[in-house]
Specification:
With about 280 residues, this protein is α+β, with helices and mostly antiparallel strands. The protein contains eight helices and twelve strands. The N terminus is likely disordered.
Length: about 280
């Protein structure tokens, strides 16, 4: 029974973690803005809109990120993501701490491969987990199925995952009433302009992004981004206060336009999240 419980919890925690890889939002102001100046704000918004267009048109990038979600988890992710037709990509994820890492350790691995496709994402679990799922090494999470998580609290996870591209951070910052230029800095050897601002859910005009914030229980956040001379994001830092504690994500972006591949795993080696959950004792 204990093994069954761990397996069931593992299925849910992996779902939550994978949708949170790039869907982090933020809180805790990084400074108190000065008095708003229309000319300064106008130049800031123009620069950010240029960054939004350039980043969106690049359609793909290599991503390295670290994420902490209070006591729930800490993790790293490394791989490529594309956003020309929904979200696609492949990431290697390492759980480094928190409840999820403990659960994954009991399941036999703290590292896995995640493949993101427009309608679902796939997680490759360890051999020990496969022994408990009929030998299937992959789990398929359809975004629509995530609405059943934790009595409906997962309803926005699919929206989050499909909104987790670099240009989304720029969109959030464009909604800020106190967006400001922090200064010129160097990020991994590249010259970049640092922008920062505080965002509330009420500020966000984009319905998808607003639902992403409210669905995650976030009312206020801070967004910091660094934009290079090509108007492309090279770094972002986002933070949010959540029920499990402070959520923080730092991501670095490089190789914009890189070729992204994310193949669906063989059907014979894939278990569906909804089916696997239905087979667990205590699941309606």
């Amino acid at each position: 029974m204990q093994g069954t419980t761990v397996r069931r919890v593992g299925l849910v925690l992996v779902a939550t973690a994978l949708t949170g890889v790039a869907a982090c939002t933020s809180q805790e102001s990084s400074g108190t803005p000065g008095r708003d100046d229309r000319a300064v704000r106008g130049r800031a918004l123009a620069a950010l809109r240029a960054a939004e267009r350039a980043t969106e048109h690049a359609e793909s990038a290599r991503v390295e990120s670290t994420t902490t979600m209070g006591s729930l988890m800490s993790m790293t992710a490394d791989g490529t993501l594309g956003w020309s037709d929904g979200i696609t990509g492949t990431l290697t994820i390492e759980y480094t701490g928190g409840t999820i890492a403990d659960t994954m350790r009991r399941l036999g691995t703290t590292s896995m491969e995640a493949r993101y496709l427009p309608e679902a994402y796939y997680a490759r679990m360890g051999e020990k987990f496969a022994e408990q799922t009929g030998g299937r090494r992959w789990i398929r999470y359809a975004y629509e199925d995530l609405e059943a998580l934790a009595g409906g609290s997962g309803a926005h996870l699919g929206d989050q995952m499909r909104s987790t591209t670099p240009n989304q951070s720029v969109k959030l910052l464009l909604s800020s009433g106190d967006v400001r230029k922090v200064g010129e800095e160097t990020v991994r050897g590249r010259s970049a302009t640092h922008w920062s601002g505080t965002v509330t859910a009420a500020d966000v005009a984009d319905a998808g992004l607003r639902k992403q914030l409210t669905g995650a229980g976030v009312t206020t956040e801070t967004v910091d981004i660094w934009v290079d001379e090509r108007n492309l994001l090279v770094k972002k830092v986002e933070k949010a206060r959540m029920a499990t504690g402070l959520m923080t994500q730092t991501a670095h972006y490089a190789d914009y336009g890189v070729t992204v591949r994310a193949e669906r795993p063989p059907r014979s080696d894939t278990g569906d999240f909804e089916d696997l959950m239905r087979k667990q004792p205590g699941t309606p």
